[in-house]
Amino acid sequence: MYQQQVQETPQLKVKQSFFRDTFNKKYNVGFGSPLKDTCSRCFELARKIETASTSEEKVTYMTQKRIHTLKAKAFYQLLKVEPENCISLSFDCQKNNPLPKLTDQAAYFSRQLNMYNFTIVIGTSKSTLDNVRTYYWCENEHSKSSNEIASAVYHTLTNLVIPHNIDKIRLFADGCGGQNKNTTLLGMCSNWLFSHAPSHVKQLEIIFPMVGHSFLPPDRIFAKIERETKKNRSYAIHKFVNLFKEHATVYHLGDGNVEVHDWKKEVSATLKTPGNWYFKFNLSKRFILHRGRQNVSVQGEENYRNQIGQLKYVTKRRKKITDMAPSIVRRGNKVNIKKILDVANLLKKHFGEDWRTIDTLKYYKDVEEDNDNFEEHESLQCVPLEETENFI
Ligand SMILES: [Zn+2]
Q1: Dist CA 132 CA 91 (whole Å)
Q2: Average pLDDT, stretch 98-106?
Q3: In the chain, what's the furthest Cα-to-Cα distance?
Q4: Residue 256: Cβ within 10 Å count
Q5: Where are the domains of the chain?
């Protein structure tokens, strides 16, 4: 192929051995999964340092890299050290588990139903069944949006045992805009702090890591789960649930014990839109909620260490945080019809025309039959908000 490419310029033609040598030694090719967890900013700065043409330029990039690394470290320092007066929760979504999970190529290219796992780790010590909460739900039950996340966090907060010496709760979550870094979560937390937290709890702080440096305690649990799921194919939900149960206390979101509430609607009726807040929402790394006598005030900080922000209300005029009374979001979420057809095809391929008569596949039959009774709810992709952030 190479020889053909250089047909017009014979001086570029080479022997096969020469080509092989160059291909093997000079090309950065390899097989394997890409390192998706490498931070793109780190990568970009490393390259810039390498290719800088002047020493001034090089120093500039090195300084930028140093600040970037220090900032990332400052986050982990906060996560690692739990002050005596605090309880910390960290939470994250596992990447979607596909249903049915089959290990062949047809499944790889086919659309599948998603099963979601949202996990909260309480405290900074070792994870046990007692301090890990996993909330799971399927795509045909609820979407994956700020409401589901806020409802699960609310459930953990309201069931948390908080000793008398604790006056502050800290939440660590990755800065995904759709699910975590939004006013829905913040509004729900304000409501909990004011109306439901024990009176000795005065503050709740939500802390977001740097994009690309967001490894949190739940990710350790997800890694274990994924190691297991990689080995087996699975088309039954209970197999996933049993696996979750090895690592956490497990709740099925929306089953009557843990309801999904429409926090989003209540929050937008109660809080000002973030564009009208007195600090920049997207640039903030920490939100500190203070419980006052009348209301909750919010302090935004762009830094992990300094406390320079003011304490102000972000509620609309004549609105209070106690005004929120979110209604229950009923189970049932319409799935894209193409997805349902894909799944049916996949099951036909594996189990034959009669797959609908097989007991263990009842779930898929039900999804097909019930889908038209449901509405489609908004589902949000996890896109970090700070892609365009100027780091200096
Ligand atoms: Zn980085």
Answers
A1: 10
A2: 79
A3: 84
A4: 8
A5: 39-81, 84-323
Q: Ligand 1 centroid vs 343 CA: distance in angstroms? A: 38
Mean pLDDT along residues 361-373: 90
Q: Residue 101 has what DSSP assignment?
A: B
d(CA 213, ligand 1 centre) in Å: 6
Question: pLDDT tens, 189-198?
Answer: 999 999 999 9
Question: What is the Cα–Cα distance from 374 to 141, expressed in whole angstroms?
Answer: 9
pLDDT tens, residue by residue, 236-254 = 888 899 999 999 999 999 9
**How remote is the CA of residue 28 from the centroid of ligand 1, in Å?**
22
Ligand 1 mean position to 83 CA, how many Å?
26
Closest CA to 94 of 130, 134, 152: 134
212 alpha carbon – ligand 1 mean position (Å): 6
pLDDT digits (tens, 9 = 90+) for 61-74: 999 999 999 999 99
CA atoms within a 13 Å half-sphere pointing along the CA-CB vector of 232:
9
C-alpha of residue 261 to centroid of ligand 1, in Å = 36
Which residues are CB-neighbours of 90 under 8 A, at least 6 positions away?
79, 120, 121, 171, 172, 173, 216, 217, 218
DSSP output for 169-204: EEEEE--BTTTTSSHHHHHHHHHHHHHTS-TT--EE
- What's the CA-to-centroid distance between 305 and ligand 1, angstroms? 18
User: Among residues 204, 213, 91, 89, which one has the least CA distance to residue 149?
Assistant: 91
* Strand bridging mode 132-138 / 249-252: parallel
